[in-house]
């Protein structure tokens, strides 16, 4: 088992969420990079938990990951509500930056995959300016189909990054990473959703007040009303947890 095998977790509907703080998470992932073994890190929220409950293949992807961090406020609430609290919320956006900060000490290589060619180019430029000691060893947009997978995997392997960040939407990025994790041979691969949009400047992150009140999801809904359908998973998740309180954290 990987370096992450001994981390304390809480099971939420059979999905093992890390109980570590941001600082401890970064320390574990630093060791994971140094181990040179492939690790898939999933930053999960209630929408992904609900998707996994409806889709056995997605549940398998999540249960096979080396580490799942509680990205969503709803996950932190659920763990607390069921008496198995996690240390804190570990947002994927912040985790990406913390890993790059540590990576500067080692001159880690980073590969960026996903979003549009314009956004990925801007993201690469900005991260290189922000973390000059990091090596951006490659990037490409996320617009490719299964027929091109092998070619994409080969180019990433050739670039031999220490960190691979993938932004292709939760329903695509996690299964894709899971499928190619061992072929990619990247020590730490993490799905980062809309992070490149924010880093590139295409989208704004929620103001500090929304972050503090744990309402980043609400800010995104105000900005993108088209997300309303997906957001319905949040109240459904909360009601389900309240109804299942005694059984949420039991092994499945």
UniProtKB/TrEMBL annotation:
Record keywords: Cell wall biogenesis/degradation, Glycosyltransferase, Teichoic acid biosynthesis, Transferase
Glycosyltransferase keyword on record: yes
Enzyme nomenclature, EC number: 2.4.1.187
Catalytic reaction list: UDP-N-acetyl-alpha-D-mannosamine + N-acetyl-alpha-D-glucosaminyl-di-trans,octa-cis-undecaprenyl diphosphate = N-acetyl-beta-D-mannosaminyl-(1->4)-N-acetyl-alpha-D-glucosaminyl di-trans,octa-cis-undecaprenyl diphosphate + UDP + H(+)
Pathway linked to the protein: Cell wall biogenesis; teichoic acid biosynthesis
InterPro entries for this protein: TagA_TarA, WecG_TagA_CpsF
Function of the protein: Catalyzes the conversion of GlcNAc-PP-undecaprenol into ManNAc-GlcNAc-PP-undecaprenol, the first committed lipid intermediate in the de novo synthesis of teichoic acid.
HAMAP family hit by this protein: TagA_TarA
Family affiliation: Belongs to the glycosyltransferase 26 family. TagA/TarA subfamily.
UniProt-recorded name of the protein: N-acetylglucosaminyldiphosphoundecaprenol N-acetyl-beta-D-mannosaminyltransferase
Organism: Paenibacillus silvae
């Amino acid at each position: 088992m990987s370096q992450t095998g001994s981390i304390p977790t809480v099971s939420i509907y059979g999905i093992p969420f890390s109980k570590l703080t941001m600082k401890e998470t970064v320390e574990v992932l630093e060791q994971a990079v140094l181990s040179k073994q492939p690790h898939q890190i999933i930053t999960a929220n209630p929408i992904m938990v609900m998707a996994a409950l409806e889709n056995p293949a997605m549940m398998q992807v999540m249960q096979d990951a080396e580490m799942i961090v509680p990205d969503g406020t709803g996950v932190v609430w659920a763990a607390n509500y069921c008496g198995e609290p996690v240390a804190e919320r570990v947002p994927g956006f912040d985790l990406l930056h913390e890993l790059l900060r540590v990576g500067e000490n080692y001159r880690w290589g980073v590969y960026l995959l996903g979003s549009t060619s314009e956004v990925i180019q801007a993201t690469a430029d900005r991260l290189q300016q922000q973390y000059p000691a990091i090596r951006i060893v490659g990037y490409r947009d996320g617009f490719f189909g299964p027929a091109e997978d092998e070619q994409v995997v080969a180019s990433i392997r050739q670039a031999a990054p220490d960190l691979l960040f993938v932004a292709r939407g939760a329903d695509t990025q996690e299964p894709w990473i899971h499928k190619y994790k061992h072929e990619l041979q990247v020590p730490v691969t993490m799905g980062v959703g809309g992070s490149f949009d924010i880093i590139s400047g295409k989208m704004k992150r929620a103001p500090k007040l929304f972050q503090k009140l744990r309402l980043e999801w609400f800010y995104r809904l105000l900005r993108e009303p088209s997300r309303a359908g997906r957001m319905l998973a949040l109240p459904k998740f909360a009601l389900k947890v309240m109804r299942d309180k005694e059984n949420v954290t039991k092994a499945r």
